[in-house]
Design brief:
single chain; 507 residues; 21 helices; 78% helix; 0% strand; globular
């Protein structure tokens, strides 16, 4: 495996080197970097031209400029990258830091959401092949995949930002709106869970009544402006997540895994109470430290309770701790929602432009909400586009695996459908999906240009567009360096994942 990885790294380095040379040559020959100054009537035009020529080294041959860029990239090995200056004389490494932070924050979140949602939906549609649920999901998947990104972004800005901000000022829901939302969720859940007509009716009816009652209560107590979860809801949500993970992994009959997961939930509730004051106004260091502590507790719980299923118990406990940590973060963020609405400009929380409110000064959770609300719409957009492809590929892969002989053998041995799906089919179905994830992550970084442009984000797309428009190779090459490296790293991780998913690939 090590020899294989080193060979792939060597080939990838040659590909990046050739691609960077081609990108550099194409950029510097795409126009005149002094065109705007040549047409200027400014009295200091000659000085401005001389300054730009010095910043961009236009008097040097192209190969010397490219060599200087390569030498600066080589310094990244010792932690002192030098990506040159843009035409205004600003170090590109400084521009790249802020641009990469904004884009990676957007791309990583949307990729994770797309993987979880897309794979989950793909598995359900494969299991419910040719059902009404399958047809509806297929229709929406193809619709979202073919939607122009800029048009979908405009719709999100209109309904997800402008009209939502109007509604949140005085949030009220009529009975028919509540009933419509409850009926829609009931239809989706009943269709995804499947079963005979009686089971679907009971599932849909129960979902409708629960959602209708919850929304009616939220509307009555003005929960949408003053939301809260509290320790009871955190505990119940974590308990539900624990039971779900145990059911999907080993089944509720495995008491060792079940007790490990429940112990992790109990320890998490105790930690929520004990560290409540630190969580009210934390720092990022505090949050990561507490998350690390929860992982340690989960590993210990799985090791103590696991027995012969120790490895499974540890992984399930870690999953429970992770999901519980997310629930706690949501709880604390919601507790600050009311104060955030009062502090944000004009009481309109979701902006249509920018990655954060300029010069906003609030508490930790208020600033967390500020960045989160600005991240919401572009994340939804990129997630919907990726979910469409993930769900289709997962469905196709699952259907192919479910027709294999070993799956039929597992069913003929009397194994439950849960065991057949989770232990025999799902793992092998993930192999082609891994390739799609690797390519999609790199493509999202490069393809977020339209999304960032519509939502006014100063990210990698803006850096690339500005450099290309101004015939400035330094920002363009910085963009290529990040996206190219991301493509190499993600494909390398995909190769390693292949070996983990299918041990035959290691040989």
């Amino acid at each position: 495996m090590i020899k294989f990885i080193l060979r792939r790294l060597g080939i990838s380095f040659l590909v990046l080197l050739g691609g960077s040379l081609l990108m550099f040559v194409l950029t510097i020959n795409s126009g005149d970097p002094l065109a705007d100054l040549r047409e200027s009537n400014a009295p200091n035009r000659d000085n401005l031209i001389a300054q730009r020529i010095a910043n961009m080294r236009l008097d040097d041959p192209w190969y010397e400029r490219y060599g200087a860029w390569l030498a600066g990239v080589g310094k990244c090995v010792v932690g002192s990258c030098d990506l040159g200056l843009n035409r205004a004389g600003i170090p590109v490494i400084d521009l790249l830091g802020s641009a990469a932070a904004a884009t990676l924050r957007l791309v990583i979140l949307s990729t994770l959401l797309a993987i979880v949602i897309g794979i989950g939906v793909g598995i359900l549609t494969a299991i419910r092949q040719y059902s009404g649920f399958d047809y509806i999901v297929t229709f929406f998947a193809f619709m979202m995949y073919s939607l122009p990104i800029f048009w979908a972004a405009v719709l999100l800005k209109e309904y997800g930002a402008i009209r939502f901000n109007d509604w949140i000022a005085e949030p009220q829901m009529t009975l028919w709106q509540i009933a419509l939302i409850a009926a829609g969720l009931a239809f989706v859940i009943a269709g995804s869970l499947g079963g005979d007509a009686r089971r679907r009716l009971l599932t849909g009816g129960g979902t409708f009544l629960f959602v209708f009652a919850a929304l009616f209560y939220f509307d009555a107590v003005d929960w949408f402006r003053q939301p809260a979860l509290g320790v009871v809801v955190v505990a119940l949500a974590s308990l539900g997540a624990a039971l779900l993970l145990v059911m999907l992994s080993s089944g509720l009959g495995n008491k060792n895994v079940l007790y490990a997961a429940l112990t992790t939930v109990a320890a998490g509730v105790v930690g929520y109470v004990v560290f409540g004051n630190q969580l009210d106004e934390p720092t990022w260091g505090t949050l990561f430290a507490l998350f690390g502590l929860s992982i340690v507790v989960a590993v210990v719980s799985g090791a103590l309770w696991g027995g012969y299923s120790r490895r499974m118990a540890i992984w399930v406990s870690v999953g429970v701790a992770t999901m519980m940590s997310l629930v706690v973060v949501v709880d604390k963020a919601l507790a600050s929602w009311a104060s955030y609405l009062d502090s944000v400009r004009n009481g309109r929380p979701i902006s249509t432009i920018g990655a954060e409110t300029p010069n906003y000064d609030g508490t930790f959770w208020q600033e967390f909400l500020d960045k989160g609300t600005q991240l919401l719409l572009p994340t939804i957009l990129l997630t919907l586009v990726s979910v469409a492809s993930y769900s289709r590929y997962t469905r196709s892969s699952m259907l192919e695996v479910l027709e294999q002989d070993y799956v039929r053998t597992a069913r003929s041995k009397g194994l439950s459908e849960r065991v057949v799906i989770t232990k025999h089919a799902f793992r092998n179905a993930l192999i082609p999906i891994t390739t799609i994830v690797a390519f999609d992550f790199a493509n999202l970084i490069g393809g977020a240009l339209l999304t960032e442009t519509v939502f006014g984000w100063k990210g990698m797309g803006e850096l690339f567009r500005t450099g290309l428009t101004q015939v400035d190779p330094a920002p363009v090459m910085a963009f290529f360096l990040v996206t190219g490296t991301a493509a190499v790293v993600m494909n390398m991780l995909a190769d390693i994942a292949y070996a983990f998913l299918d041990p035959r690939i290691r040989r």
